[in-house]
């Protein structure tokens, strides 16, 4: 078959596959290749180019999304069929994960009385419902973002479909992990920008056990704009990978870039934090004198904790960046 | 979409499709008493004056297969892999029942349309 005609069909079949659940793609693609080939052979007339016939046939078949929809995977639901397996896996994980976290708070539930346990149980159920709601919202947003990019049928031109990405072993796609990462990034984004007061520190040095304080109170400074850029990058990247259904060379490079940006965020936090200079206003409101020895002890503890936590983290991130660059540069040399 | 069926007056495509959809199951089951691949079935139906676009026909074949009314196998013919469909025993029973329904419906509609 003519090279251009084959490429047009490949692009079309690839784009249909993007709207199908991963486990059905290969089968439907095989069938479509066969059907389109049969029809093109049948409609090819003397003097007509194969490419022109392919374009006509594909145009008549309609936009790839419409074809996928006829195979029974149309966007009838808030969450697309392609995302449903990952969604249901996460739905099963949420109650267990929330239970694990809730069990940590059980010692502070106020004893083991029936009423305290009842309150704890209600809190647990509330958290499960809240998290399931957020999960649905994340998937719905993913679905809408994906459908926004779909051109209406009237504008469909098979010649303008983007080429299927070159074969690239970008590693196994783990949708559940990607959604968890999106979820965490959204949560951190919301917490740091709108509810910084709920981020607290733990201490056992005689101060309240759970101390919900503004970050500035313990002298940790987070450059918010840099953090926001990094988190937005994570959300965009993971969303795109989920939408594409696989890792490509470009998305893997983007991930390496994000890891480097994450390192920059961490270094900026360490650089600009003033451990040991606790917020005077906060201390005054808490009725604690700045010269209280517990304040200095807490500051020292926070400083050591930061340094201890940061060192292996920096090494881990650097190792991850190096591994990513090495893999990508190695695969660039191999035939695609 | 291919809109090959001509209507004397403008019938909304969705209504025409809805009307044909039920009959199409019957036609596909009847045509697949002999094994055929997707495109040959489409042509067979077109020759019988039943125009169906592939976007409707091929997903229908899969649905009928999932309902175990059809079975399929892949075979390579003229260098091209093709999926061949054939009616199953269960499909034959359904075809017989649907044919009876069709006769009854057809008679009833003729009376109503008079």
Architecture overview:
The complex is a heterodimer of chains A (336) and B (114). Chain A is an all-alpha fold and 336 residues long. In chain A, 68% of the residues lie in helices and 2% in strands. Chain A has helices spanning 3-17, 22-43, 50-61, 64-73, 84-105, 114-148, 175-194, 224-244, 249-272, 280-285, 293-333; strands at 200-202, 210-212. In chain A, helix 1 (3-17) runs parallel beside helix 3, helix 5 packs antiparallel against helix 6 (114-148) and helix 8 packs antiparallel against helix 9. Chain A is elongated, with a radius of gyration of 27 Å. Chain B starts with 12 loop residues before the first helix and ends with a helix. Chain B has 114 residues and is α+β, with helices and mostly antiparallel strands. Chain B has a 3-stranded antiparallel β-sheet with strand order 1-3-2. Chain B has helices spanning 13-31, 38-47, 54-66, 89-113; strands spanning 36-37, 70-77, 80-87. The A-B interface holds A 30-31, 33-35, 37-39, 42, 60-62, 66-67, 70-72 and B 1-2, 37-40, 43, 53-56, 58-59, 62-63, 74, 80-83.
Describe how the helices and strands are arranged.
The complex is a heterodimer of chains A (336) and B (114).
Chain A: H1 3-17, H2 22-43, H3 50-61, H4 64-73, H5 84-105, H6 114-148, H7 175-194, E1 200-202, E2 210-212, H8 224-244, H9 249-272, H10 280-285, H11 293-333
Antiparallel strand pairs in A: 1-2
Helix pairs in contact in A: 1-2, 1-3, 1-4, 2-3, 5-6, 5-7, 7-8, 8-9, 9-11
Chain B: H1 13-31, E1 36-37, H2 38-47, H3 54-66, E2 70-77, E3 80-87, H4 89-113
Antiparallel strand pairs in B: 1-3, 2-3
């Amino acid at each position: 078959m003519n090279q251009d005609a084959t490429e047009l069909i490949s692009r079309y079949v690839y784009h249909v596959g993007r709207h199908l659940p991963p486990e059905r793609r290969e089968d439907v693609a095989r069938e479509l290749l066969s059907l389109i080939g049969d029809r093109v052979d049948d409609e090819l007339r003397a003097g007509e180019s194969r490419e022109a016939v392919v374009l006509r046939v594909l145009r008549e078949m309609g936009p790839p999304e419409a074809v996928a929809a006829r195979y029974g995977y149309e966007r009838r639901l808030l969450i697309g069929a392609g995302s449903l397996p990952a969604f249901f896996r996460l739905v099963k994980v949420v109650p267990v994960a929330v239970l694990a976290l809730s069990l940590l708070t059980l010692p502070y539930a106020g004893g083991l009385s029936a009423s305290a346990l009842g309150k704890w149980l209600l809190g647990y159920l509330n958290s499960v419902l809240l998290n399931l709601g957020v999960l649905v919202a994340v998937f719905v947003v993913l679905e809408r973002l994906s459908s926004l990019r779909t051109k209406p049928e009237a504008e469909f031109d098979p010649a303008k479909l983007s080429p299927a990405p070159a074969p690239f072993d970008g590693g196994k796609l783990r949708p559940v992990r990607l959604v968890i990462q999106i979820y965490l990034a959204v949560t951190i984004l919301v917490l740091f920008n709108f509810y910084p007061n709920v981020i607290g520190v733990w201490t056992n040095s005689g101060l309240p056990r759970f101390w919900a304080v503004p970050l500035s109170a313990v002298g940790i400074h987070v450059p918010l704009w840099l953090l926001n850029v990094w988190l937005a990058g994570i959300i965009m990247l993971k969303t795109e990978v989920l939408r594409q259904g696989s890792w490509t060379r470009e998305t893997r490079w983007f991930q390496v870039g994000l890891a480097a940006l994450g390192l920059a965020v961490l270094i900026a936090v360490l650089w600009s934090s003033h451990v040991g200079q606790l917020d005077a206003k906060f201390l005054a409101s808490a009725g604690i004198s700045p010269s209280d020895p517990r304040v200095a002890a807490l500051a020292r503890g926070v400083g050591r904790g930061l340094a201890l936590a940061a060192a292996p983290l920096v090494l881990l991130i650097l190792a991850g960046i190096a591994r990513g660059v090495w893999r990508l540069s190695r695969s660039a040399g191999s035939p695609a | 979409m291919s809109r090959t069926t001509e209507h004397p007056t403008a019938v909304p495509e969705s209504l025409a499709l809805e009307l044909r959809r039920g009959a199409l199951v019957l036609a596909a089951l009847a045509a697949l008493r002999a094994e055929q691949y997707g495109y040959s079935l489409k042509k067979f139906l077109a020759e019988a004056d039943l125009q169906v676009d592939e976007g409707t026909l091929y997903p229908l074949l899969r649905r009928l297969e999932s309902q175990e009314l059809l079975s399929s196998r892949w075979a390579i013919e003229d260098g091209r892999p093709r999926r061949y469909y054939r009616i199953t025993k269960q499909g034959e029973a359904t075809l017989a029942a649907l044919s009876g329904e069709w006769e009854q419906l057809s008679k009833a509609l003729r009376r109503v349309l008079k």
